[in-house]
Amino acid sequence: MPDFSDPKKEFASTLSHSNARVVRAPKVTANTAKMAPHQSLREQNLTPRLPVPAVNDWVAQRLLKEYGAIFVAQGNVVRPPAIIFTNPTDCITWQSRLNIRRENIGGIYIELQTEAMNALLAAREEAVRKNLRITPRGTWAARRSYRDTEKIWSRRVVPGLAFWRRRGKLSAREAARIQELAPARQVKEILRLEAQGLYFSKNFSKSILYSGTAPGASQHISMLALDINENHQAAVRAILARHGWFQTVISDLPHFTYLGTTQNKLPALGLKKTVKNKRIYWTPA
Ligand SMILES: [Zn+2]
């Protein structure tokens, strides 16, 4: 069993209500952060906090720990209603209510929540003035559907099961059993295997969560995340941070998240700073 920190943050809403097109949260059945009953919608939007998964829901706890920064995104954006979408329908319904801006950047069409896109375009302008570029990394760089997250997940799981089977770490029967499960039901099994050192990233050296994500749990679903080609340039990362874009998934190198605020405000929002290989990451404290 992996070692999970005990979330201490108060139970809170993950919905933003500043967007008039968002009428209400879609029905989500599991790993869901429900609204705090004593708070008005306006109060919840003013004070976004990290959701608290059930004590025995270690998958949700792990996902929150890895991807949770998005739940305190500031400004006029809509935060995801749950740690994990449990089916494509809820996800489509929720996405359809977002205020989205679509742009062609470097020949690739990307979609982000409008404020996140505006901030990205401003960052790109600043980059141009400094002879730098900020470009999306591939066609899945920004928006993803629930089905996209399933596909990306399976692209890691299927080769990973074959790899560990060849290595003799997994029986053919066990590998087949896991592969036959629906992607959402594989999550617990894969994270259990990773806790034993059987990793499922592309080169089997680190967690699958750093090179893909659990189906339905991607920040890309919320259209507040973007994978960027020039992520290795410190000057580019600094420009992005000035415009509210931060790295929030440790070791997911191209991945940036729109948090809509400045770096000095992030600790007060419940995020902690980790410096790894000269990069700064912000994750739930
Ligand atoms: Zn990403």
In short:
The protein has a domain at 146-210. Helices cover 33% and strands 12% of the residues. It has helices at 41-46, 58-67, 88-96, 114-129, 146-166, 172-180, 183-195, 234-242; strands at 100-105, 108-113, 225-227, 245-246, 255-258, 271-276, 279-284.
Account of the 3D structure:
It is a single chain. It is globular and about 55 Å long. It has a domain at 146-210. Helices cover 33% and strands 12% of the residues. It has helices at residues 41-46, 58-67, 88-96, 114-129, 146-166, 172-180, 183-195, 234-242, and strands spanning 100-105, 108-113, 225-227, 245-246, 255-258, 271-276, 279-284. The protein has 285 residues and is of the alpha+beta class. Helix 5 (146-166) runs antiparallel to helix 6. Bound molecules: zinc ion. The site of zinc ion has 5 residues, from strand 3.
